[in-house]
Write a structure and sequence with these properties.
The structure holds two protein chains of two kinds. In chain A, about 0% of the residues lie in helices and about 55% in strands. Chain A is mainly β. In chain A, strands 2, 4, 5, 9, 10 and 11 form a six-stranded mixed β-sheet that branches. In chain A, β4 and β5 form a beta hairpin. Chain A is globular, with a radius of gyration of 13 Å. Chain A starts with a strand and ends with a strand. In chain B, the strands form two sheets. In chain B, strands 2, 4, 5, 6, 9, 10 and 11 form a seven-stranded mixed β-sheet that branches. Chain B has a four-stranded antiparallel β-sheet with strand order 1-3-8-7, with no helix packed on it. The relative contact order of chain B is 0.33. The chains are: A mainly beta, B mainly beta. Chains A and B meet through β5, β9 and β10 of A and β4, β5, β9 and β10 of B.
Chain lengths: ~110, ~120
């Protein structure tokens, strides 16, 4: 059972548009990570957020961790076709630091 | 390439057959994780090794599944008497225990198709 819900599940936009992906949970996580995954490949880490209210920027990507450390968002400015992929949030859980992944957001950016 | 490697990348098998996958983590990474991902979903945790010790197993890991990491380096995941529901991408990840926030590095995965 996934504990992290992502929305939207699918998103198809035109190049140059902005978008936001949300990741919500009823659980508190010590940290939360965002990954991007391309077809047939493993997830690649984009960012880790640790502190409630934290905002991190990675070029055109802005990540925010909720004050209560239960939710996060990913905002992409001026999307490009190269941003196409499956975006996954993941909470870090337990003493083993296993990742609890969200349901995923499949993004398609049309040129 | 010094990243996480997995072999094979693709496996097609008939229902009832046994399959074994291999994961080679990043050298000196003492933590190793296996996840399973079905199409369009996020990965789900299966099991965790610290060095050679298997310290956590998910309820998803039925008794048809067994994982080993005999020398604390590479790991194998075996599925016995495969079922069509086992069709998925099996991902391996490794990390160092003293890094904060569990920086896990993922391999490319093994895609299993059970006919």
């Amino acid at each position: 059972t996934q504990l992290l819900e992502q929305s939207p599940q699918f998103l198809s936009i035109q190049e140059g548009e902005n978008l936001t992906v949300y990741c919500n949970s009823s659980s508190v996580f010590s940290s939360l990570q965002w990954y991007r995954q391309e077809p047939g490949e493993g997830p690649v880490l984009l960012v880790t957020v640790v502190t409630g209210g934290e905002v991190k920027k990675l070029k055109r990507l802005t990540f925010q961790f909720g004050d209560a450390r239960k939710d996060s968002s990913l905002h992409i400015t001026a999307a490009q076709p190269g941003d196409t992929g499956l975006y996954l949030c993941a909470g870090v859980g337990g003493a083993t630091n296993k990742l609890i992944f969200g349901t995923g957001t499949l993004l398609a950016v049309q040129p | 390439d010094t990243g996480v490697s997995q072999d094979p990348r693709h496996k097609i098998t008939k229902r009832g057959q046994n399959v074994t996958f291999r994961c080679d983590p990043i050298s000196e990474h003492n933590r190793l994780y296996w996840y399973r991902q079905t199409l369009g979903q996020g990965p789900e945790f299966l099991t965790y090794f610290q060095n050679e010790a298997q310290l956590e197993k998910s309820r998803l890991l039925s008794d048809r599944f067994s994982a080993e990491r005999p020398k604390g380096s590479f790991s194998t995941l075996e599925i016995q008497r495969t079922e069509q529901g086992d069709s998925a991408m099996y991902l391996c990840a490794s990390s160092l225990s003293w890094t904060s926030g569990s920086l896990q590095f993922f391999g490319p995965g093994t895609r299993l198709t059970v006919l």
